[in-house]
Each structure stands twice: as C-alpha cells, then as structure tokens.
Specification:
126 residues; 60% helix; single chain; mainly alpha; three-stranded antiparallel sheet; disordered N terminus; Multidrug-efflux Transporter Regulator, Chain: A, Domain 2; 4 helices
Length: 126
C-alpha cells in the first residue's frame, strides 16, 4: 500500500475488516492505518475503546472496536476534530442511536398493545 507524506495510506481507502473474532494491536494498526502507540493512547482518551487484555497484557480487539477505531480515525484525521470534539461527536451519535432504538422499541410495543386491544374489542362486540 502506498503511503502519503503523513505516513497514512494514500487515497484514504482502508482494507476490509476480516471476519475474525479478535484482532491483535498490530492487525488493528494495519486495518485502521494507525500506529500501535496511538491506539494505546486512544484507549486512555476514549472510554468506549476497551480491548480485552490477556497474558502479558496483550490487547485483543473485537470487530466493533475496529469499527470504532476507524470512526475515531475519521473524526480526527479526516474531519479535523480535536480529541475532545471527537469524544463529543461519538457521545452524540451513541445517544442518538439509543434514543432511536428506544423509540423503535416503543413503537413495536404500542403496536402490540393496539393489536391486543383490538382483539379484546372484537371479543366484547360479539
């Protein structure tokens, strides 16, 4: 892969994430075009990023953490956010997702209540 003057992959295209359960810090570095020391620093700054640590304090990242690292990288390197700005943006998007999920589950719950009430009305009207 060709690197630009900042040492990042030229063209901004990252390799696809393989279908694996765990990734080492070296693999994540290559998949996300980020050096391992930067990943360790981001772990301190972003509490959502919490890889499992096994023997010898070796880090093992899961798929969702690799996706999160790519998002952090995008916010910092491509969109120009500061660390604090990226934290805020990640918190906003996680809150939006939880609110959206809450509304969707409420909608399903309301639909089932409506169906039950209509069934009760049908029984009572007989």
């Amino acid at each position: 892969m060709e690197k630009n003057m900042h040492g990042m992959i030229a063209g901004g295209s990252l390799p696809p994430i393989p279908a694996k359960r765990y990734f080492t810090i070296g693999e994540v570095g290559e998949l996300c075009d980020v050096k391992p020391h930067v990943l360790r620093y981001w772990e301190q700054e972003f509490n959502q990023l919490n890889p499992q640590k096994r023997r010898g304090n070796r880090r093992y990242y899961q798929h969702h953490e690799v996706v999160l690292i790519r998002r952090i990288r995008e916010l910092l390197y491509e969109e120009g956010f500061t660390i604090n700005g990226a934290k805020l943006r990640l918190n906003e998007s996680s809150q939006e997702n939880s609110v959206l999920g809450h509304h969707q589950s409420n909608g399903k719950h309301q639909d089932s209540i409506r169906d039950e009430l209509q069934a009760v009305l049908k029984i009572l009207s007989k």
